[in-house]
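Aggregate trends can hide what the representation actually does to any particular protein. This step matters because it turns folding into a mapping between discrete strings. For completeness, the protein is quoted in full, as a sequence line and a line of structure tokens:
=====
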Amino acid sequence: MCCVIFVKHRCLLKVLPSAAERRPRNYRLLVALFTAIKADPQLQRLTCLVDSNGQLSETGWQKLLPVCDGVMLDLKAWKSECHHRLTGRDNTHIKHSIRFLAARGKLAELRLLVIPGQVDYAAHIDSLAAFITSLGEVPVRLNAFHAHGVYGEAKAWPGATPQEVERLADGLRARGVAKLILPALYL
């Protein structure tokens, strides 16, 4: 997990890496940081976002959300088996976090990573779209996989093309997902 602090209408971006999801007690650092930002007259204008893999417990989210403006979360695959193959983790808890955050108006962005031949979004497009539309008006960012900075088996995977990303976008739009954000750049 990392926190991302945006200064609205400026080019300043700060990122603070945190192992909060591997060590759940570390989210307290983010709570303290965001609390200090919100209490400081010169910093109050900052937007405090968390970039998360969704593994924080509900109790952790409840403590973080009062001082957090939103959370950006990745759903790497629809079915747990596929998600586990890609990440080594089941996605049941991640889906719970997504629902939990959306219900509280704190899901700033849901991200789907398009990895040709690896993800199962197309095979489960109806279920995926129904899940997304049940969340309300949440922005969904479609990210195109590229192998830059990747290691292991994934280094040999092909990058996603604009056509592959558009195909997923078209399928989601046809099923009622309206707030899609497409990649600005394909590597």
User: Anything to note?
Assistant: The helical segments are 27-39, 58-64, 80-87, 92-103, 125-134, 162-174.
